[in-house]
Each structure stands twice: as C-alpha cells, then as structure tokens.
Design brief:
By secondary structure, the chain is mainly α. It is about 80% helix and about 0% strand.
Length: about 400
Amino acid sequence: MANGISSSRTAYMSILLFGIVSLVGDLIYEGARGLVPDYLYFLGASAIIVGLIGGLGEFLGYGVRLISGYLADSSRAYWLFIFIGYGLIVSIPLLGFVGIWQIAIVFVLLERLGKAIRAPSRDTVLSIVSKGVGPGKAFGLHELLDQIGAVVGPLIVAAIMFSSGNNYQLTFSILLLPFLVLVMALIYNYRKTGPITIPPKTPGEKVTLQKPFYIYTLAVILNTIGLIPVILILYIAASILPPEQAWVVPLVYVLIQGVDAAVALIAGYTYDKYGVRVLTVAFILSIFPPLFVFIGGGLSTILIASVFFGVVLGMQESIYRAAVTQFTPISSRGTAYGIFNTGLGVGFLISGGIFGLLLQYNIDFTVTILFVVLVQVIATIILLRTQQAVKRNPIEKSE
C-alpha cells in the first residue's frame, strides 16, 4: 500500500512538473496566439491568407509529429526533442522585430514546428510517468495547468496592448522574459523527472499499431475538418471590432482558454470512467462553433461560438490524446502520437482552407451548416466503431 501511495505521489509530481512547463510555454505562445490573427490583419493579410496560414501552421504543428514521433521512438531521445521543441517558442518574441506579414508568418510557422517536435515525446513521457493515475486524469490535469498559462497569457498580452496604445512590436518583445523562465523550468523538470526507461527496439522490430488506432484517428480527422479553426473565429472578431478596440481580441481568446481549462479536468475524469464514448459529446458540440460564426449577429454570436469552441478544445487537448493510449502499445507510442497528430494536422489544414473560402466568398449559411452536420455525423459513427474494433483486435499495451 505504501509503495502504491509513493508511486502515485511520484506520478502526480511528474504530471505537475510537466504542467508547469506547459503553463509557462502557453503563457507565451497562447498569449500571443490570440493577437496573431489581428496582427496579420493589421499588416495587410486577407481572410483567406490568415485562414490558410492558420491551417498550414496547424498542419506543421501536427503533421511533422509523424517524423518527430518516429525518430523519438527510434532513438529514445525523448528529452532532446522536448528541449528543441520548447526552444523554438523564442520565435514568438521575435515577432516584435518584424513589420511585414510575409516575414511574420515565418515566425508563426516556426513556433508551430517547435510544437511538432516536442509534442510526441512530451506525451509519451507523460503517459509513462503517470502510469497508475489513469490517462484521462493525467492528461486532464496536465491540460488544466497548461490552460492556466493559456488564460493568463492573453490577459497579459491584452493588458500590454491596452497600456501601450496597441503597440504590437512591444507586446511581442516583452514575451522574451517568460521565455527565459520557460528554459529554467524545463531544465528543473528534467533534473527532477530524469530520463525514462524503455527497452530499446531490437533490430528489425516493427511498429505494432493495429486497426482500432487507425479507425480512431480517421474519426478525429473528420471531426477536425468539420470544426472551424480558432484563428478564423478571432479573425472575424478583429474584423467586427474598430481598430481602437484591437486589445479586445485577445480577451476573446481568454474566454476560449478559460472554458478549455474548466472542461479539461472534468473530461479527463469522465473519460477514465466511461471511455471513448465520451468523445461523442465533443463531436456533436463541434457543430455549434461554425453555426454561430456563420449565423451572424455581431460580437455576441462570436462569443457564443467561442464558448462552444472552448468546450470542444478542452476535450480535444485532454481526452483525445488520452484515448491514444487505449489503442497503442507503449513501445510505439511516440510513433502513434506522431501519426495521430499528423492526422489532426491534415484535418486542420483542410478545415482552414474550407472555412476560409466559405467566409471569403460568403457561401450560403444553409450549405455551410449542412456540410458541418454531415461531417460530424460521419465522424461520430466511425468513432463508435472503434469499440467494436478493439473487441475484435485487443491491444497488447505492454505496460
């Protein structure tokens, strides 16, 4: 019993340390992320450019994980990938030194690339050190801490924008200070958690990912395609507000992140109790953000869309990731997270392009909603098939 308690405490401490690192990281890039669409708009980028850059950024942020996850599994150098990935967050403060949108998007994409490099390794290490706690609770708690930074960051950015008279360059540059804190927190996390021990793969050993994992990934891809990207929600908010109220846009992002934080931990506990079926709630709720964006009505409907998006995001960032552990063996989990997140990247890229075009050309509301509903219904049906696939193809997790 004592050993069980000690193990549980160690697991929660590891989760806490990872959460603190993510908190500081989110304070930087999530704090700035709510301002990026408005900044690109300020620099002269069109709606379709912002939508495509948002989609491309998410594609890089998720698609490259296929490579980084495989390399991490092959080398077992998970911490190296974590350090490199978090280091690239420095590109956000560097936005303060540019004034051309073509250059700004390079830094935006570099930050997303950094996330692609670190995420599979971080999620793999987190899934291992949190053994015995439950994947839903582990990823839910991590996401809760992560979202504290995602809420505080935009508030800080909004305050700086307000007090500086909407000085974009100064606002981005100040974020260099929390970046230095991030580096120190990451070093401390590594020293306390230490390297993880997974037996190296033997020569010729193959990745053992089975059909249920791929069915689940397909369902999540379709769900993502039918969900309007957050960058376009913020872009619409920026286009509605007068220039002197640009500081309000990060507060819309605060609302999204606040709802995300409130939902993540609850969703994690619920997932551990009810399993993958909980994700059907997120799939169904994914219909509402585009519905309220395209229905019109000004800032009030954008705020409603933001609340629904926050609920979906809270589940997406916690239990979507937790569910991967149900379908994959530990020896290939980095690769699995890489493939899974590549699928998400494809979904985000397609979603950014589709919804960017729908907004740019004012496509009829009925056509848009029919598309969204159809995609989410198909995604939900496929999701429900994963349970049947697991029964036919049980996963040997080797944990």
